[in-house]
């Protein structure tokens, strides 16, 4: 087995933590993970928490990300946030196309692609989420669904820009349900994603691309998942709100 890519462990706080709560939380979290330099650590926080969290994490090993980005530079898009705004607030990463956004906010493969392009152009690293829902897995079309989502997300993304893309494989049935994909199931789909990237960009780029697993990753199962050949980190929801558990996951990525 060749050496794997540098792992990226990213917390997805979702709609949790007021700015005051975030301030307390990040201080505790930082203390627990500060000695870890072996992987990249990211916390993707609600937009309103970005300034305080970015300020507290400045100069530390913890990087900050947003959870969504609009594709327009600016304009009449009430409630949305632009890539430049995220960057100015201190974000280096942004989650795009999370299944909750696809499910509840009308996100489509097309808007995922547009948002990904906007994020990259602003200098952010895009964490692009793909994943099948339970009925798709039961119908045996996981590969088809994930390959399609990956290809459409990467439309018009150049080989050079792939350095700013992370793919997060998040089977929808595993998110927040406590049902984790087995390490083999997760690795199999991450490998498929890598093959899709190889077919479009060639093997060196596919080998260099970080592919995370997400969906009920926790302190107990992280080590097994992260040991798989094609899994280069995690996108972690619930467990990222528990500093001890998040620290164990970061530890597992060493
Ligand atoms: P979970 O969420 O870890 O709570 O399952 C993962 C995610 O939605 O990114």
Can you tell me about this structure?
The chain is an alpha/beta fold. It has helices at residues 19-33, 50-57, 83-88, 99-104, 109-121, 134-138, 142-153, 183-201, 203-208, 222-226, 243-252, and strands at residues 8-12, 40-44, 62-66, 93-96, 125-130, 165-169, 210-214, 233-236. Strands 1-2-3-4-5-6-7-8 form an eight-stranded parallel barrel, surrounded by five helices. Strand 1, helix 1 (19-33) and strand 2 form a beta-alpha-beta unit. The two termini are 17 Å apart. 2-phosphoglycolic acid is lined by residues 12, 170, 175-176, 214-217, 235-239.
Summarize the helices and strands and which ones pair or pack.
Layout: E1 8-12, H1 19-33, E2 40-44, H2 50-57, E3 62-66, H3 83-88, E4 93-96, H4 99-104, H5 109-121, E5 125-130, H6 134-138, H7 142-153, E6 165-169, H8 183-201, H9 203-208, E7 210-214, H10 222-226, E8 233-236, H11 243-252
Parallel strand pairs: 1-2, 1-8, 2-3, 3-4, 4-5, 5-6, 6-7, 7-8
Helix pairs in contact: 1-2, 1-11, 7-8
The structure holds 2-phosphoglycolic acid.
Quick recap of the structure?
By secondary structure, this protein is of the alpha/beta class. It is built from eleven helices and eight strands.
